[in-house]
Each structure stands twice: as C-alpha cells, then as structure tokens.
C-alpha cells in the first residue's frame, strides 16, 4: 500500500499523456504543466530541502515556461530552445535563492542539488510537447501533400511497404507520444506485480516492448524497429525506478511519493523527442 501513490501517479500521468496526445498540442501542454505541478509540490519535500516554497515556485515556473515554449515556437530547431533557457535560468534562480538565505544556513548543498535536479526533470517534460509537434506540425506541408513521406523512419527495409510497417501520419493517427505513453502505462502495470526483482525486471522490459509493438501493429502507423526501441526505453526506465524504490523504499509523504511516480514519466519526454530527432529522416 505504501507504493500506491507512486504507482497511481505514474500510471495516471502516462494515461493523461496518451489522452492529451489525441486531443492536440494545447491539451498535451496542459497535461505536462499538471505533471510539473506535482513535481513542484512534492520534489522539495522529497529532497528534504529548505526554502521549499521558493524552490517549488522555481521548479514549477521552469517546467511551465519550457512546455509553453515548445507549444508556441514555429521552427523545428526551436522546439527545445525554451527548455534550455528555462533550465539555465531555473538553476541560476536556485543558486540566487541560496545566496539570499544568508550564511550559516543548514543543508545548503543538499537544497541546491535537490532543487536543481527538480528543475532538470520539470524542463525535460516539455519533450512530450516537442515530440508531438515534431515534425508533422512544423514542416510546412503544402495542401494535399502527404505527411507520411515526411515522417519516414528507418525500419525493416525488406518489408517497409507493408501496411503494418508504415509510419505515423498527421491528424488522428497514433502519435509517437501516444505510443510512448501506452508503453509507459503497460510498464508501470507490470512493475506493480508482487514478484521478486529477478522476475519483475525482465517482465517490465518485456511489457514495455510488447505494449509498444502490439500497439503499433494494431494501428499500423509506426515501423516495428522504432516501436520496439521506444518500448524498450520505456520499460528500462520504469524497471530502473522500480529497483530504486525497492532498495530505498517509498517516501512516507503522499506528495513526495506522487513526485517520485511522476518524475520518470516527465523525464521520458526528452527521450521521446530526441529519439524522434535521431530516427526520423
């Protein structure tokens, strides 16, 4: 029962991201901002830092600026620009707050490192919005032009013409963000199984891989190579978090536990975006 807030936060965050990806950029941006709120409220408490209100505000503002920036830019090269800006100014603000606290304050180093880590996680969550917009929304397709040609990704070359091994389309089809969210949700469910680590960790990896691959097959919108890779990344992330929680134990405070659950989901955003940038050609 002590792990319930962690699992519930992770699962609900993943499901909300899937729903947001179907609803569009504005809805997904709201979902990402809501995840940043959870992180901002629980992360300073989790890290045991002082000056929690001010540091929570920095974590929240950095995440919101990064998400809004990814939602409104008009160039592909700028999708992660505001994440970098928010990260830089967020970490700078953390140091300024520590200076303003004056000398002789306890746990100054722990507060600085913990709050900076929170800023990093909240700003990388903007990758979900950037991943949804890249590249279909920003390539400037002419009327009647086929978006599938823009979104071709390396796959199983001999079978690339098969419908089941096609690529994402624009508007209504399964997006990479939706696929990643489904993979994370399946991985979280597998991580909740009450079995020992030697069995659970391979199951989590297999769950993420199978969830991603089967979803791509059902929709027929993504290459199997890309889908399988994304599923393995999602499974590995959740498996690592499960192992960490088993070793360290779940946080006692509810907000802290929710922040722990939301953190890997938020961090996956950057992996989704940069995986797209690497594999889409």
From TrEMBL:
Entry coiled-coil feature ranges: none
Protein name: Uncharacterized protein
Organism: Nesterenkonia aethiopica
Domain of life: Bacteria
Signal peptide as annotated in the record: 1-23
Keywords: Membrane, Signal, Transmembrane, Transmembrane helix
Segments crossing the lipid bilayer: 26-43, 55-73, 79-100, 112-131, 174-193, 200-219, 225-245, 252-274
